Amino acid sequence: MIEHGLNLLWVVLGLATMVNAWTLGLFGSMGPDSGLFPMICGVIITLCGLLLMIKKSTRVENPEWPASTGRRRILGVLGGLVGLTVTLPYLGFAISSALTTFVLLQTIERSRVLESVVLTLVSVSVIVYVFGHLLGMSLPRGPWGW
After folding, report:
1. Of residues 38 and 3, which shows the higher confidence score?
2. Which of 31, 33, 46, 91 could be stapled to 14 by a disulfide with Cβ–Cβ 3.0 to 4.6 Å?
């Protein structure tokens, strides 16, 4: 019963996303508008919810919960996203995402420090260059102006 309710929740969430996307507009004079991507996501969520409702239930009698390392990884990702959200307005995109990436690589991937530093610097630099310079998006700037 609970499973059907959750599947119905996905369908309702997908439909609400589609309605909201429609109000944003799907196409404008210059091409795709800001509602197109949310509309695609809403369609996917709705279809997946409908497929789950149609599919026969595969309820497990005694589900196994993840080991403590799995829970630590989940909490690490959630903590990293919360940390990024909190620090973004104060430190800017580059510093916040670099700190978050480095911490996640250390806590979740358990990579070596040098690998984490190199991967963090390269990934954040590429993202800032592509989105900030090539595409002209305004990324949040920190107190140092970058």
Report:
1. 38
2. 46
